[in-house]
Amino acid sequence: MKKLLLQLDTDPVPSVFDQVVAYDSGVDHIISYGGVTPDKVENLVHGLMFTRGGKQLANSAIFLGGSHVSASQQLAEAVKKCFFGSVRVSVMLDPNGANTTAAALARKIVGNYDIRAKKAVILAGTGPVGQRCALYLLKEGASEVVLTSRHISRSMAVAKEMQSRYQARITPAESRSTEDTRALLENAHVAITCGPPAVSLLPQSVWSAALTLEIMADVNAVPPLGVEEMKVTDDGVERFGKRFYGAIAIGNFKMKIHRSSITSLFKSNDCLLDEITIYDIACKIDE
Amino acid sequence: MKKLLLQLDTDPVPSVFDQVVAYDSGVDHIISYGGVTPDKVENLVHGLMFTRGGKQLANSAIFLGGSHVSASQQLAEAVKKCFFGSVRVSVMLDPNGANTTAAALARKIVGNYDIRAKKAVILAGTGPVGQRCALYLLKEGASEVVLTSRHISRSMAVAKEMQSRYQARITPAESRSTEDTRALLENAHVAITCGPPAVSLLPQSVWSAALTLEIMADVNAVPPLGVEEMKVTDDGVERFGKRFYGAIAIGNFKMKIHRSSITSLFKSNDCLLDEITIYDIACKIDE
Amino acid sequence: MKKLLLQLDTDPVPSVFDQVVAYDSGVDHIISYGGVTPDKVENLVHGLMFTRGGKQLANSAIFLGGSHVSASQQLAEAVKKCFFGSVRVSVMLDPNGANTTAAALARKIVGNYDIRAKKAVILAGTGPVGQRCALYLLKEGASEVVLTSRHISRSMAVAKEMQSRYQARITPAESRSTEDTRALLENAHVAITCGPPAVSLLPQSVWSAALTLEIMADVNAVPPLGVEEMKVTDDGVERFGKRFYGAIAIGNFKMKIHRSSITSLFKSNDCLLDEITIYDIACKIDE
């Protein structure tokens, strides 16, 4: 029986990226829709639920994507409401690749480093990747995770939301200047930059002065990179006594996690891969 | 050569259900379009007609679907106008699953029951499934088929249309109350409920008082069901001296008919599966 | 690894024709988008570029189609801008089938005929097929290629554009009457009709009086054909001392070129098939 993946994308044009990865993960056919809103979900999901029965439902699954994380999360809620009893299919939620990217980022750091009782600072970290990475580092035992924004109001709002959504306690902070960043990195062991492409966030003058700092990771692949002296292919390279993880090393591992997650969807008909469970999958993969 | 199915759906979002069934029927690839109107058909159908030649055209076929039966029938007319001589492909018309569902419903009843010279009443039967079921029961020799609506004008209009379209003579009737239904079931042998989901149409007090009644069937899968005491999985179960056919038993057989119809499309390049010929296919399948 | 073709079509509804040909050329899956404009290209192309690495990129390719040749050419420019270094995929540009049709038309003529130092007249030749055919005949050594339009301003504009785009020197001409055509065919060896369907352009009275004329070809498959006494299936048939090539013979060869081009896309990740290189592929195929 063919493995069918229903791609529901909140963007008007459904992602090519997600389709290629799905094919490369063993999916036989993708049924793809763009511009999906929660009100359109029921009929589409019923089409998957009511065409195959019992254990055969493990061959049908749903991928929820799109550029806007919250829009895709709303789709996920609408999808879950369609299910009843054992009449359900597996679902993966990875809007904008945020879950798989954050899992790859966190695993690159903790895979070879004991983060327990350590402090991490995620610069420009209030977006989906930064938030999820914070969650994973706390889960792995970090003593403190600071999430910075250019506006303290933004990082405080995120801290509140993470507390209520995940019972995760992050430290909100504001960073508008090199001086701010320098102060935030005091006593920090890990620094992560989650800023937009081509924005430098962490100059060498700052990180070289941060004496406790051991690890830096950056998800920006477009020069100038987020961390000065970082190379996109850095995969744990030691330089000036600190370890570097660049965007391509993280991205390659993200692809592994993404593919492994898709494969997992078809092992049962009741798997839900979201920001929590995708990390569990990542933990089982060698980076 | 790959078996290609061109799905033309009149709904803005093409049906997932129809795509999954097509893949499960051996189709290799589906080329899917939603929001199709008759004026858009020519270019799409020519793309299928002019890419493969001679006997190879048996590997290309068209499925016409959508929620609105008449809109899909208009597509069918537009598609047929594109063909000439032997340059044509097979076509299946099953808007809203009406043809396959009605065929399954009728076959469940007549498969194990001699309906010749018997009277059937189809409650809330003026929709596509009810109309087609009436047609099939008359074809199988029923002496009378009554189609009810809440408005006699509606059932009379349908009776007139069925006369002109199929030369089928049904008895129009109005049923607005339990009393109406009780009167209509007098001397009836078969009662079928084709109402909307979660609407009870036939209380036990009525059917248990209908002494000639032998068989009841219901296409509503959402409680309360159309017939009181019906179970969705009833597949000819006898209860209180009468035989019951529920929505899931009918639905499972509908799936078989749907799949078998899709498979038939690829046996030649000139097969036309519509409300008449899909029933012929259903007759060859064991329910 | 599956061969994936990204179909970007400038028409609102992406071409069925192009999809069927792609499947028949060994493509495993098509990711299809209609209504594509240059501003939407980047995200789609990046989805193809960043999901597979190194030599694996040869399994991903792009097909650019649509009814309007210039719109598709603009897509091609936008696509090329997305690539950098070796991070690229193969691309085929064949809007409205113009490149493959023109290549088939030219090859039918020059495959069995030495066109060097000969004169060709392409009637109603200012459209994409006529222009490209002119280019190919000049490339093969024709001494003169005349392109006619009903308006000399149109053919002069095309002559100017072909000079600047391809450094190709064609002779612009106006043909509004049988008399015009008769005069234009003086000393011509080849006459080609590229008019719209069902428009007769070359009456027998004219071509039979053209004493030097040896070959006629016509791309119009709908009667009345472009050349009087032509048959759509003529494939080099001699009649009245002249050789005839009809639309179906040319169309069948066009299909071979189209399929062979698609197959070529997957031999490397840096192939660009456009109006120039598709002709090179056509030269390697037996008509």
Structure, described:
The structure is a homotrimer of 287-residue chains. With 287 residues, chain A is an alpha/beta fold. The first copy, chain A, has 2 domains: 4-93, Methylene-tetrahydromethanopterin dehydrogenase, N-terminal domain (Rossmann fold, 3-Layer(aba) Sandwich); 99-250, Rossmann fold (3-Layer(aba) Sandwich), CATH 3.40.50.720. In chain A, 38% of the residues lie in helices and 19% in strands. Chain A is built from 10 helices and 12 strands. In chain A, strands 7-6-5-8-9-11-10 form a 7-stranded mixed β-sheet, with helices on both faces. In chain A, strands 2-1-3-4-12 form a 5-stranded parallel β-sheet, sandwiched between helices. In chain A, strand 8, helix 8 and strand 9 form a beta-alpha-beta unit. The longest helix of chain A has 19 residues, at 247-265.
Annotated CATH topology of the largest domain in chain A: Rossmann fold
CATH architecture of the largest domain in chain A: 3-Layer(aba) Sandwich
Percentage beta strand of chain A: 15-25%
Q: How many H/I helices of chain A? A: 10
Largest sheet of chain A: 7 strands, mixed
Q: Domain count of chain A, please report it.
A: 2
Order of helices and strands of chain A: EHEHEHEHEHEHEHEHEEEHEH
Arrangement of strands in the largest sheet of chain A? 7-6-5-8-9-11-10
Distance between the termini of chain A: 32 Å
Q: So what's the CATH class of the largest domain in chain A?
A: Alpha Beta
CATH superfamily of the largest domain in chain A: NAD(P)-binding Rossmann-like Domain
Helical content class of chain A: 25-40%
Shape of chain A: elongated
**What oligomeric state do the depicted chains represent?**
homotrimer
Query: Which regions of chain A have little confidence, pLDDT < 50, spanning 5+ residues?
Result: none
